[in-house]
Amino acid sequence: MITNDPAHKKERSASRKPSSPDRKTSGSKPEQSPQEPEESGPGRVPAPQAMRNAAQQLSELLGRAPQSVSALKPTADGWEALVEVVELERIPDTSSVMASYKVVLDPAGQLMAYERARRYTRAQVDREGR
């Protein structure tokens, strides 16, 4: 009889596991955050990975270590990030020249483009409406 075959029993038991729909719908799938509406697309890296990719790949191109990723947003074509980089170190540290780079990533997290958006001293504070 087929039911005595160990391989057949293994297949039947494996096929029975997902038969409980109540278990799957009771919170096993995380909800999407409103900040990442397109993250669920096939091949799209999650936001934390996109941040790491933006910083790492820009660092490779510029030869400077990024200080931080100050902004990240999903787009129809992937991700956009603002990465802060020290362009010129000075003493005291507050007079160092910083730059914000706009980095464009594809959905897989690969750098497609970048441009320097702004330069400023580390001690500079943004003002409202500016």
TrEMBL record:
Residues 1-51 are annotated as: Disordered. Residues 27-43 have a biased composition (Low complexity). Residues 1-25 have a biased composition (Basic and acidic residues). Pfam families: GvpO. InterPro entries: Gas-vesicle_GvpO. This is Gas vesicle protein. It comes from Streptomyces gibsoniae.
